[in-house]
Amino acid sequence: MALSECSTSTASRFFPMSLRRDAAVLAPRLSLPHRSCASKVPSFRTLAVRASTPLLVASEACAKVIHGKYVSKLIRDEISAEVSGMKEAIGVAPGLAVIIVGDRKDFATYVPNKKKACESVGINSFEVHLPADSKEEEVLKFITGFNDDPLVHGILVQLPLPSHMNEQSILNAVSIEKDVDAFHPLNIGRLAMRGREPLFVPCTPKGCIELLHRYGIGIKGKRAVVIGRGNIVGMPAALLLQREDATISIVHSRTQNPEEITREADIIIAAVGQPNMVRGSWIKPGAVIIDVGINPVEDSKSSRGYKLVGDVCYEEACKVASATTPVPGGVGPMTIAMLLCNTLTSAKRTHNFQCVGCFRLYFTIRKTSSEIVQEDSLSTRTAFTCRCPYSLNCLFS
């Protein structure tokens, strides 16, 4: 298979889940000051709350680097603190079940990483590994078991499935209350409708939006282009951007003049699976790029014989964009972090648990408030903005 390099010609054409507006409370948030490419000294301003390490690092060219690996570490720390509080308060730990069918090479990396991430934050991990020639009924049997297991709060079926299995039937069999991958059509349908809230948001698109929030990158009123219209990333990413009041265009394999459309974007989310497809000429000066692609290209200098690149030509993008994610180390770690977040959310919802920090804050405000409110009144939940450092999806927010 021929894989393109940045130096080649243009590749073939190609939270309740409303996301938090007060993300700066949970993690450092930085502005993106404009600076000339000729500047030799990194220019950034850190608005640190609980950490002083800057998130944005200037590259040798012009763009700042959006470090998903660093942000995901902050999020895992927040999840770990809340899981600990949950265990202490009600004696329950979230549980995630993963069903793997077959022995694809990429499974050897993805699955252990997910298991390790669960262990790092205190989430119990359950794993079923079936041979590639397993019958569909065997997979459905395990899904039914996990649906009924009170220790399991999230179920993930590792994709892709073998070709002889009906992927849609298997994914639809997962209980919507445990659909932490958010592939159930009811979750996607609710995401698409105004005034409705999905139980979960797909992990990778959610991670993309979370990165924009954590870096203080405004979305409202901006022009955003999503490259790719797949069910896993492209389509839900466009829906999330629309919920954030961006003006959306979707570029896909039948789009005419994709370069011209993409060049109008203030925000680009590339999720098409084509190495280095988006060139520097596609990018509006000062645009922000979230590169979801992770593609192997031949590299004789690497001991593995290949290197990983995104859908965007990184070297060219750095000369034009104001900020961009690297590959690897950008969106990938955020996907796993959002999976942990969704699993925690499911456990909290199942056990009607609000984080301990928010209970303390609630009662502190209630005691000092001149207003008389009922403890069980829903109105008390909107009497303040949650500032709890231990919660990503506090029910009060």
TrEMBL record:
Domain Tetrahydrofolate dehydrogenase/cyclohydrolase NAD(P)-binding: 202-350
Pathway where it operates: One-carbon metabolism; tetrahydrofolate interconversion
Chain ranges passing through the membrane: none
Residue ranges the record marks as coiled coil: none
Domain of life: Eukaryota
GO aspect biological process, one term: tetrahydrofolate interconversion
Pfam family, one: THF_DHG_CYH_C
GO cellular component labels: cytosol
Protein name: Bifunctional protein FolD 4, chloroplastic-like isoform X2
Organism: Rhodamnia argentea
